Amino acid sequence: MNGAKAEAVVIGASAGATEALSAILPLLPADYALPVMIVVHVPPDRKSVLAELLQAKCRLEVHEAADKEPIGRGTAYFAPPDYHLLVERNKCLSLSNDDPVFYSRPSIDVLFESAADAYGPSLIGIVLTGANQDAAKGLRAVVEAGGTAIVQSPEGAYASAMPEAAIAECPGARVLSLSEIAAYLQEIEKA
Amino acid sequence: MLEKVEDLEIRLLLEALYQRYHYDFRNYAQASIKRRLKQAREQMGFRSFSALQDGLLHRPALLSPLLNYLTVHVSELFRDPSYFRAIREKVVPHLRTYPSLKIWIAGCSTGEELYSFVILFREEGLEQRTLFYATDINQDALAKAEAGIYDLDRIQLFTENHRKSGGKSSLSDYYSAAYGKASFDKSLRKHVVFSDHSLVSDAVFAEMHLVSCRNVLIYFDRGLQDRALGLIKDSLARKGFLGLGSKESMRFFQHADSFTECVRDEKIYQKSSK
Ligand SMILES: C[S@@+](CC[C@H](N)C(=O)[O-])C[C@H]1O[C@@H](n2cnc3c(N)ncnc32)[C@H](O)[C@@H]1O
């Protein structure tokens, strides 16, 4: 740990995201102290059912983020399809139509970079399964701001390219299995 | 916490842009403006935001390219078809009861939203009694809106959107195709006034029956959103309608009390009579 008290978690995932998130989010308690912001690559034209699906499994409140929504505890926020999700320094969420990053809107880099700016060393950035290049740069921004980087171990991941790219970009990242990530998140809240 | 040097530079750059050219981005949502300024700095070839500021102050020619980075121009004809379907089914019946209509497309960008409304109003037989105001702060975008020429490869999406919106005619009736471009008919612009207008620094200019302001407010911080929404509220006639972008909600606004929900899922509101 880097000494700073953890204040927020950002998660990025692509191919295989639903299963991976289902192994983590349901284990967090209803009043989990750290807000969780999540970008999953979803097709732009589709109403995403991800938040609903996970809400059914979770004690946490899970929903799609609304523009300028204040960030609070006990909640997981998903980026809506076709919008980037960003964290403002005053700890509210913003949406934007800015250009896609690596063909993705929402983009993991965009969320991670803005969250690193807002939370600095108090941020935990987690990169899960995926076959995209998005996320590596964002995770580096988390590290450069003094935050904690965690990557799902590529061997266990449904798609290994994204975790591998993240590890290459952030060699100091902790590489953990899904159950270890869930345990870590439960621990860190108490720290 | 001490302000980072880079954030200080950005603040000063936006102040310079305002003092020198009266474009006020100072209270835009900071996270995405920072992202776009970074892009501008890199692609315009400046080492730092201070250097960009220096360039901007002394070379007015840099203003227009910078504005094109600072404003976002993603749009489609009949973007979110369900929104236009709701306008057609839930709002148009009210509008029909007025002998003349004023409609304001605020932040019209390159014109796609405007043409969607004009076509819809023509289909519903309301075009002749309507005056459309199409406004934006970006001159380049306004010029494109006024030209009404789009890449032909976007037409398939536009046609599909139009159909899903409950379109009663064929989109191909409204444009002619040549050399990879679709050029929208000038008759569609007969009832349109294009104008440079900022929701941040300009005032009310007419009394509207419907304001469509989509995907503009998300770029503002909370305080500025309240300011812009106050302006829109003051521009609306009694019981006038307001349509926002699909992810913009009245929920966090100071003016929420002045509006009632008309079509909740489509972010269409009506000014309350009180
Ligand atoms: C993403 S586009 C929205 C286009 C269209 N309304 C739609 O939803 O498809 C945002 C537009 O808002 C304009 N804009 C930004 N700041 C503005 C301001 N202060 N007043 C009016 N328009 C503004 C930008 O220039 C840009 O054209």
CATH superfamily of chain A: Methylesterase CheB, C-terminal domain
Q: What is the alpha-carbon Rg of chain A in Å?
A: 14 Å
Q: Which bin fits the share of residues in helices of chain A?
A: 25-40%
Distance between the termini of chain B: 45 Å
The average pLDDT score of chain B comes to 95
CATH architecture of chain A: 3-Layer(aba) Sandwich
Strand order of the largest sheet of chain A: 3-4-2-1-7-8-9
- Order of secondary-structure elements of chain B: HHHHHEHEHEHEEEEHEEE
Number of strands of chain B: 10
Spans of chain B of 5+ residues with little confidence (pLDDT < 50)?
none
Describe the fold and architecture.
The complex is a heterodimer of chains A (191) and B (274). In chain A, the strands form two sheets. A seven-stranded parallel beta sheet of chain A has the order 3-4-2-1-7-8-9, sandwiched between helices. In chain A, strands 5-6 form a two-stranded antiparallel ribbon. Chain A has a single domain (8-190), classed as 3-Layer(aba) Sandwich (Rossmann fold), CATH 3.40.50. Chain A contains six helices and nine strands. Chain A has helices spanning 17-22, 50-57, 108-119, 136-144, 161-169, 178-190, and strands at residues 8-13, 36-40, 61-64, 75-78, 84-87, 93-96, 123-127, 148-152, 174-176. By secondary structure, chain A is α/β, with parallel strands linked by helices. The longest helix of chain A is centred in the C-terminal third of the chain and has 13 residues, at 178-190. Chain B is α/β, with parallel strands linked by helices and 274 residues long. Chain B has two domains: 2-70, no CATH class; 81-271, Rossmann fold. Chain B has helices at residues 5-21, 30-43, 49-58, 63-70, 81-95, 112-123, 139-147, 155-164, 222-235; strands at 101-106, 130-136, 149-151, 175-178, 181-184, 192-196, 208-213, 236-244, 259-263, 268-271. The chains are: A alpha/beta (191), B alpha/beta (274). S-adenosylmethionine is lined by residues 71-75, 79, 107-109, 112-113, 136-138, 141, 198-200, 214-216, 219, 245 of chain B.
